[in-house]
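User: Sequence in, structure out. Go.
Assistant: Echoing your sequence, followed by the structure tokens.
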Amino acid sequence: MQTFVKIVFILFFAFSICENTLAQSKKLSADDRVLQDSLYNNNKKKVVNFSLKDFDNLFFEFFNKKNDPDIILTKSEFYTYTVQIAAFSDRLVKLYPDQKEVAEKNKQNWLSENYEDYLEYKASQKK
């Protein structure tokens, strides 16, 4: 039960962050979509086998790097993080089938993250 509460909390946290930025997001370019699809296919099997602790580490590593003004992720690094976080939703669907709708929405929100928006965010940190 404690694990379920953690997962719901993480999904809520991730969803609320994504929901706020989604309104400002631009569509992904064709090149970004191809890169994202490739990364998703390469990482899906690994991420589906993540423990909750592995996911927590990945999630907080991404947010620490994203919020550190001295670190700028490459496009590949950025999409690797967002794709892995999105792919973890597939594991949640298997573990909690009743949460499928929430997990799918969360997955789509993470897959809609845009590298250009990230670069704009990083530029605003330096001001």
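User: And one key feature?
Assistant: The helical segments are 2-22, 30-48, 52-67, 75-95, 100-111, 115-126.
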